[in-house]
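Hey L., structure's done. Input below.
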Amino acid sequence: MKVLKLSLPLFLVCSLLLNANENHTNLDAYISDLKQEQFRYDYEKNEAEGSILRDSWIAPLQLKYSYVKSKPYSDELTNQNAAIRMDQPIFQSGGIIYGIKFANASKRYSDYSVDVAKRKMIKDTVSILMQIKQADLKEEAQNLQIRNAEINLAQKTEQYLSGQLDSGFLDDAIIQVNLVKQALYDIQTAKEKLINQFSTLSDLSYESAKIPYLELISIDEFLEHNIVLKQNIAEIEKNQYYKNVTIAKYLPKVSLTAGYNWSESEQQFSPNVTFINSLAYYDYGVKAIIALDINTFRDIESVKIDYLKAQVVQKDKQRELTALFSQVLHNIDNFDKKIALSNESMDIYKKLSDDTKELFLAGYKTQYDVDTLRNSFEIQKIDSKVFEIDKQLELLTLYEMYVNQD
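Output:
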């Protein structure tokens, strides 16, 4: 897969999700078997409805039979009738071929609609999994924040007891410990909600499931293999063929007609006298029909408007997706800046931590100082990992609509 040549650093390539030979079975593995089964039935329904629509020009063969027994007078009368009739259009001014094309385009549009819904579910599932992994990191970082707050409280307590600080500073330190612990509880609560959401969408264990790492693609690739745009193109084709079908509906139509008829009547005059009359014959021919309707031009104009509107929607959607791509790039760039800032802070804390260890060994600093700086260094490292997942979440927005089936 091509990579957009930008100053933005690229992510690790995950062949599971984005490559030239994308494997939909692997992608489906993120959603549960029950969800997959529902989508499978949607595709099967599209296939069935598409076949019905495609073959709708083939007229049904009508079979009729009736049996009637009556006694209008003193004699009993029995009548039987049977018939086979066919009224098959053989020419509809192009309506037959356009009807088949409309059916095929309708099926493609319906399949793309299912694809879009399925992709959104996969994207939501992976997004929740990424957020759970972020919550794990944030929980780890918050525990370090709590440790630092407790170290600060211990220092303030010692200083207060030795008369170096008044009670106000000690009170602030106690409040700070409570605040960072409350923040931890909030993170854990949010994480549990995410876990519950993930369990309803996936059969995978959130603990062992791996989050995919996506690579950045070019704007041309994003638009060329965009499933939403493909769906819009199918809608344009569907509306175009339906317009042609509607026009053909008001043009001459020729049908082949044929039938076979049989009838038999039986009248009982007396126990020994029965009169039976049978008749059987066939007929065939052709008929031509042209519809003269006051709403002809209004009907045609209506479907023509749908076709023109679909073209405008396609162009507007392409502009919208181009803006979305630019926004994702902008967001990724901001996360890169945050990562760079975290890395700079890591370097600072690393140097301070090393220097503080030396001063501690020399007796000028306490173990509290060493632990605080080490924890701060680890917090910055975790923040950098959180921002990396944020970048993946941004790329997931593009992934939701990107399907390379070449």
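The mean pLDDT is 88. Helices lie at 24-28, 33-54, 95-161, 167-201, 219-224, 227-249, 296-361, 367-399.

-- N.
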